[in-house]
Amino acid sequence: MSILDKATSHFKSVIENEIQSFRVEEWDETIYFRPTLTWKEQSKILDLTTNGKTSDALIETIIIRCLNKDGSKMFAQPDKVILNNSVDPGILLRIVGAINGTQISNEDLEKN
Predict the structure, then answer these.
(1) Please, are residues 102 and 94 in contact by the beta-carbon 8 Å criterion?
(2) Widest CA span of the chain, in angstroms?
(3) Cα–Cα distance, 68 to 64 (Å, whole number)
(4) I need a surface site. Which of 30, 65, 87, 98 has the fewest CB within 10 A?
(5) pLDDT tens, position by position, 14-40
(6) Sorting pLDDT into bands at 50, 70 and 90, what band is 13?
């Protein structure tokens, strides 16, 4: 088995791990997510953050990472406008914090 085969086999086992979940009581909904991202997904979020677009990076995290119980995407790119303008940012921050294993506050956003 080549090093590339070993690397891809390892990543496949990581990405196929049991889906984790986070309950959003205000929405009466459970959000599911995988424990890791592909490099392509990570780079999209990192590029936004690096360019000072922290809010956009958080919304992108929601779109990329939030899944339904069956593993399908909960949100799509067209939902970005609604997420940005019509959804409680405090709840979005809690979701991203739960997914990333961190807590994000409004003060953290204001620093960027």
Answers:
(1) no
(2) 50
(3) 12
(4) 30
(5) 877 778 999 999 999 999 999 888 999
(6) confident
Helix residue ranges, H only, the chain: 3-15, 39-50, 54-65, 80-86, 89-100, 106-110
CB 63 within 8 A of CB 96: no
User: Token digits for 81?
Assistant: 């406008």
d(CA 67, CA 37): 13
Measure the N-to-C terminal CA separation of the chain; round to a whole number of Å.
Answer: 45
* Token pair 């086992």 in the structure block, residue: 13
What's the rounded Cα separation, in Å, for the pair 85 and 92?
12
SS (H, E, C) 60-72: HHHHHHCECCCCC
